[in-house]
Design a protein that fits this description.
four-stranded antiparallel β-sheet, mainly beta, globular, 112 residues
């Protein structure tokens, strides 16, 4: 099971860190991704982390602003977001590779 935390309303240009807690499995055994879905849009991936800290990749829309990292002590994957823009407004989800059931997501709203 995956549960996402940390979303809230934030002003444009601000920062926020999302958390993804894994239950029932060890998160660092799997590559993991963060995704987001804006209203009326398809879900899109924004960040991926593999088995090593150097194995990270980002969608062009967030590159240089978002950082994905693991917190193995808490069995979590986190997404540090900075320089937030209104177009980052979406529900954010995490998942493993291969995918398992989706969590509830956490809503990020960026005001202009």
């Amino acid at each position: 099971q995956l549960v996402e935390f940390g979303g809230r309303l934030v002003q444009g240009g601000g920062s926020l860190t999302l958390e993804c807690k894994a239950y029932g499995f060890v998160a660092n055994k799997f590559p993991m991704r963060w995704y987001r879905q804006a209203p009326g849009e398809e879900r899109e991936w924004v960040a991926r982390i593999g088995s090593t800290i150097n194995d990270r990749d980002y969608a062009d829309s967030v590159k240089g602003r978002f950082t994905i990292f693991r917190d193995d002590a808490k069995n979590m994957v986190k997404l540090q977001m900075s320089s937030l823009k209104p177009e980052d407004t979406a529900a954010y989800f995490c998942n493993t590779e291969p995918q398992r059931s989706w969590g509830p997501g956490t809503q990020v709203t960026v005001s202009s």
